Sequence to fold (119 residues):
Amino acid sequence: MINDVIKQIRKENNLTQKDLAEKLYVSDKTISSWETGRTTPDIYQLERISILYKIPMNDLMKGNISQFVVFKYRITKLLKRTNQLIKANLFLFILSLLFIMSLILLGTLNVKYAYFMRV
Fold:
């Protein structure tokens, strides 16, 4: 059922009901109500969940999430995180490279300057 899917999604992402509620712009009581099966999300909320967690709307409405969909979501999430880390570390790498190059250049200039001063 859809209530199990919502609960599964929330737990797999280490979210509290309040965290999920904030992402969907509803109250945590609404999430609780969905998870217990007292109520169901309307079509607009289902669409938000589908987009947010990249789950096909069909699967979500059937209450059926395949392992492939879960795997695909996890890979996408991992790739986004990896991309963020690469961007952050790229700046540090370039800065370090410039620093090392400047040290080499200064060292070379000092050696040349010392050579000319002897003559």
